[in-house]
Amino acid sequence: ETKPHIVLLGAGYAGMMTTKKLLQKLSAQDADITLVNKHNYHYQTTWLHEVAAGTIDVNRSRIMISDVIDSNRVHIIQDTVLKIDKDNKKVELSNSELTYDYLVISLGFEKASFGISGMDEHAFSIQDVNQSRLIRDHIEYQFAKYQNDVENRDESMLTIIVGGAGFTGIEFCGELAERIPELCKKYDIPRNQVRIINVEGMDSILPGFDPELAEYAEQSLRTRGIEFRLGTFIKEVKEGSIIVGEGEEIRAGTFIWTGGVQANRLVGEAGFELTKGKVNVDNTLRPAGYEDIFILGDCSWVLDKETAIPYPPTAQLAIQEADTCAHNIHTLIFGGTLQEFKYDNKGTVASLGGRDAMGTVFDGRKLYGIQAKVMKNVIDDRYLFMLGGPKLVLKKGKFRPF
Ligand code: FAD
Ligand code: NAD
Q: Does the keyword Oxidoreductase apply (predicted)?
């Protein structure tokens, strides 16, 4: 008798944690497990704004998959998924094709451009390790170029625009506030020649989040030289400038779009039923009509049964979904009761660069400054601990608050 084949696509938070949980629940005799990922490393998506600003080294944010997943038990394939053929139970990769009995789709997010002209061509986005590294180097290159060619230099080379003041945009501005003074020193450029402008369509930053905490974040960032243009929608992106509001042009050497994310486009192309670009899944995390497919993390749209409000696309959610997914795959193989996913919101903490942060914790308490920063580091280290135990925390962790 052949063993069932479980294929997982994407080694982000959801894919890594589900693989870990499956290894705990299933023996080598129970099933074959294959994990497919674009790179041979897993990265901390939640640290990418730090990589993009250059406040942490790239290698700190990534972990070799084979360092934390037993490659004797899991067939790890480094390849790019091109197509999911759900009706023939096949997955097309760049270099091969796979068939599966159970499929876990955890391919994460990509930038949502909302049809804004020029966004795909001219905007950077904090999306993966390679893009983030490119942003870091592009910003530094603007400084070097500005200082190198005094005759042709243009002040706007030193302007950085961050489009969107959601959590990604705000956390990234916090890192820039730390990094830019260092670059100014390195390239002998006065800080006041550099502009960092956050452009947000709504009238406040972090729309929908606790207003007191948002106000705290805004003040912290303004004090450290971040300018805000609130109530200002970005309408078009051109090479070297953006168009906002009623046609005003703002020139900038760097434009980073943090205006929103959508599911990896492969899930839409596979023909699943979508809401806002994400696959509708039920509380067992499966799309209607496909009992052997689980869709996790930023690829799926899961409603809270009680409130009918979708859960926010966060790492916290992706990690929690892994438990339910692994349990349910075990159930499908061996029988038992399927588990319904229930999100346990542990709060939201955002870093603001350096020692500053703010957020809410599970009991609704608000944290500010160093206290929030310590909590943020605890959250990050907790994940590393779950993934790779104390060894990984020591190697990559943030146990030192500063
Ligand atoms: P991801 O973590 O995005 O992983 C997807 C994986 O799939 C990646 O490894 C990728 O390489 C791989 N992949 C993609 N396409 C292919 C392909 N075609 N073939 C093969 N492999 C592929 N959430 C929080 O809860 N707390 C935070 O503090 C927080 N901070 C954030 C900071 C930033 C800068 C950003 C951008 C997001 C942050 N988020 C945070 C949101 C969080 O990172 C996402 O919700 C989370 O990463 C989703 O996890 P995932 O497993 O669905 O996908
Ligand atoms: P988002 O959708 O939360 O925020 C996008 C922001 O861009 C919004 O404020 C929106 O009003 C603005 N915007 C959209 N179009 C615009 C336009 N044309 N012009 C100007 N502004 C525009 O996206 P995000 O910040 O990337 O967050 C994605 C997900 O990741 C969220 O669920 C978030 O909670 C999560 N996240 C969490 C943390 C954390 O917990 N610390 C950090 C980063 C991201």
A: yes
